[in-house]
Design a protein that fits this description.
The complex is a heterodimer of chains A (285) and B (357). Chain A is mostly helical. Chain A has a single domain, classed as MetI-like (MetI-like fold), CATH 1.10.3720. Chain A contains 13 helices and 2 strands, in the order αββαααααααααααα. Chain A has a two-stranded antiparallel ribbon. In chain A, α5 runs parallel beside α11. Chain A is globular and about 70 Å long. The relative contact order of chain A is 0.12. Chain B has 357 residues and is an alpha+beta fold. Chain B has 2 domains: 222 residues, P-loop containing nucleotide triphosphate hydrolases (Rossmann fold); 126 residues, Beta Barrel (OB fold (Dihydrolipoamide Acetyltransferase, E2P)), CATH 2.40.50.140. Chain B has 8 helices and 21 strands. In chain B, the strands form 5 sheets. Chain B has a 6-stranded mixed sheet, sandwiched between helices. In chain B, β17 and β18 form a beta hairpin. Classes of the chains: A mainly alpha (285), B alpha+beta (357). Chains A and B meet through α8 and α9 of A and β6 and α2 of B.
Chain lengths: 285, 357
């Protein structure tokens, strides 16, 4: 009896997750793979004749540039969030008194839709926005600066949006590290910087890797920030895919782009894991 | 008198409003094995951390070979530490851990290899160079930690309860090895422990600490045979303390109240008797009991006999209601039955008068 009861329990716990994974992840993904090998009809519908032209089309320099740009933007975003995020997380662990406040400040943006927060940046950066307004009034500039609709603006938006995803795993792994290691290094003659380089960084590597993956992967595919803050001047994979589905009505090509993007992300994650952590601390995820 | 390597002068340490170290002064001789002994929270680890440089004293000075170091960083003093949980770097193997201090100092590679090899043989870990820290036993980690701390040839090696995590047998074995190592290297060891047996076994001198002060400092025999305060007497070994009154003090003897009698006790350690309560300290092994009334003794009732391996421990109650513990090594002796009335007595030269701490 007990066995049967146990089994029912097992099925009941596993079923919702399996159901979810099957219907909302596996089947849609397989569908995307399927249509990526189909053709676009003249009226924008999907014609069920198999082809690989959607993939060969990507070899054109125009699309290769889009892919490279996306990777570069994601890479710079990851690097900047890491460079800002590490000291931030490090000092946040030092001031235990304000731990809750700091965590709250990091989490607070999540309470607002990121789309709305991006509009906030537009208000700040646009030609008649707050910064230009202030600079014009104080007489520092005569003509408003053109800050929006550039790669720079996209970078600012991306770094801002992805910052918490870097800080949280970093904070976690820095906080968890036994401070005795730092004392041991100092005791053995290491300066602050040497201690940081030879002990703190290697021991918080799981957090660094986790943060980088959590920032890099979404950054490659993020489409609304380049769309809103980059305008027509910036074309990244996310926008390209969005365009295929929403405007060009070329679902097969959009699907093929998505598949390639997923593969690029997966490969980069794999390289990362192989490179930095043979034994990755899975707890930080 | 041997050369003083470290001098601690009127150290006070406060954490927020709590005074962890009330006032400590201590001079450590070159090549000495000094133990800071005391219960947890007595300030012994804080004292060690002040010597290492992890904590700055609130006031007072620390002199290493006559030079002030109290404001120097840990990496600026030639003192190394063996940490309580070893704190071995988990991302490095045994060789890299031991070589760490040399690499930081940019010693050349051939020299590093040579010195690490020597160190490994000193701590008996030859062939373990490539081992991961995770894969070592507690005793092996202990050896790596000692090797790592010794590679720089420190002036003083600080050890913070280094054997605390090991099982009893290994602990005993490591005690002997540590002592041997210290004798061989002639390095000053400052050792922190709460284990009185460990302290008695290894130290040249012991500083018994309690609530932020040093109650007594002396060699193991002094501490055990001639404790000065009630705290030291109670903390080191088993002891019976019977409250007494001092009647008279002359050049050689102290005359104290003992039951209805007065008893003359050797002077030994007693030097402050004015205001504090005094006690007669009798070690359990020095008490005898008989059915016939001795010349000087106290009436007692046998409460319990318990067999503890090499000894028989007898608990008896004297008339004041206090329990007295007696140890007997002669296990073949006929035991007086529980509940019977006996007289406990001892030789006056076996006891010490101690005072409230």
């Amino acid at each position: 009896m007990k066995n049967i009861k146990n089994n029912i329990l097992k099925v009941l716990t596993v079923f919702p997750i399996s159901f979810w994974m099957l219907f909302f992840v596996a089947i849609p993904l397989l569908y995307i793979v399927f249509i990526s090998f189909m053709q676009r009809g003249d009226d924008g519908t999907i014609v069920y004749i198999s082809t690989i032209s959607n993939y060969t089309r990507m070899a054109r320099p125009l699309y290769i540039k889009v892919f490279l740009d996306s990777i570069v933007v994601a890479f710079i975003t990851t690097l900047c969030t890491l460079l800002f995020g590490y000291p931030f997380a490090y000092f946040a662990t030092k001031i235990k008194k304000y731990k809750i406040l700091i965590m709250l400040l990091i989490m607070a943006p999540f309470l607002t839709n990121s789309l709305i927060r991006t509009y906030g940046w537009i208000v700040i950066l646009s030609t008649n926005g707050i910064i230009n307004h202030a600079l014009l009034i104080t007489g520092i500039i005569k003509e408003p600066l053109k800050m929006l609709y550039s790669y720079g603006a996209v970078m600012i938006g991306m770094i801002y949006t992805m910052f918490p995803f870097m800080v949280l795993p970093l904070y976690n792994s820095i906080d968890k590290m036994d401070k005795a290691y730092i004392e041991a290094a100092k005791d053995l003659g290491a300066s602050r910087w040497k201690t940081f380089r030879t002990v703190t960084v290697p021991l918080t590597m799981p957090g660094i890797v986790a943060g980088c993956i959590l920032v890099f992967v979404p950054s490659v595919g993020l489409f609304f920030i380049p769309d809103l803050m980059g305008g027509s001047n910036v074309m990244l994979i996310g926008n390209l895919i969005e365009n295929q589905f929403m405007e060009a009505n070329d679902w097969p090509f959009g699907a093929a782009l998505s598949i390639v993007m997923i593969f690029i992300s997966l490969i980069l994650i794999l390289v990362y894991v192989k490179m930095v952590g043979k034994k990755l601390d899975a707890e930080v995820f | 008198m041997s050369e003083i390597i470290l001098e601690i002068d009127n150290i006070i340490k406060k954490f927020e409003n709590q005074e962890v170290i009330k006032n400590i002064s201590l001079a450590i001789n070159k090549g000495e094995f000094l133990t800071l002994l005391g219960p947890s929270g007595c300030g012994k680890t804080t004292t060690l951390r002040i010597i290492a440089g992890f904590e700055k004293p609130t006031s007072g000075s620390v002199l290493l070979e006559g030079k002030h170091v109290e404001n120097k960083q840990p990496n600026e003093r030639n003192v190394n530490t063996v940490f309580q949980n070893y704190a071995l770097f988990p991302h490095m193997n045994v060789f890299e851990n031991i070589a760490y201090a040399l690499k930081i100092r940019k010693v050349n590679k051939i020299e590093i290899k040579k010195r690490v090899k020597e160190m490994l043989s000193l701590v008996q870990l030859e062939g373990y160079e490539k081992r991961k820290i995770d894969g070592l036993s507690g005793g092996q980690k202990q050896r790596v930690a000692i090797g790592r701390a010794l590679i720089n040839k420190p002036k003083i090696l600080l050890l913070d309860e280094p054997l605390g995590a090991l099982d009893l047998k290994l602990r005993k074995q490591m005690q002997v090895e540590l002592k041997k190592l210290q004798k061989k290297l002639q390095i000053t060891f400052v050792y922190v422990t709460h284990d009185q047996e460990e302290a008695l076994n290894m130290s040249d001198r012991i500083a018994v600490m309690n609530e932020g002060i040093i109650e007594q400092i002396g060699n193991p025999e002094d501490i055990y045979e001639r404790p000065k305060t009630k705290f030291v007497a109670g903390f080191i070994g088993e002891s019976n303390l019977i409250k007494t009154k001092i009647k008279k003090i002359d050049d050689e003897k102290i005359c104290v109240q003992f039951g209805e009698h007065e008893m003359n006790v050797n002077y030994k350690n007693y030097d402050n008797f004015k205001t504090k309560e005094s006690y007669i300290l009798i070690r359990p092994e020095n008490i005898k009991y008989t059915r016939e009334k001795p010349l000087l003794g106290l009436k007692a009732i046998i409460k319990e006999h318990s067999y503890i391996g090499s000894i028989i421990k007898t608990t008896m109650e004297i008339e004041s209601g206090q329990e007295i513990i007696v140890c007997d090594y002669d296990k073949k002796k006929d035991l007086v039955g529980v509940g019977s009335e006996v007289w406990m007595y001892f030789e006056p030269e076996d006891v010490v008068i101690v005072e409230e701490g």
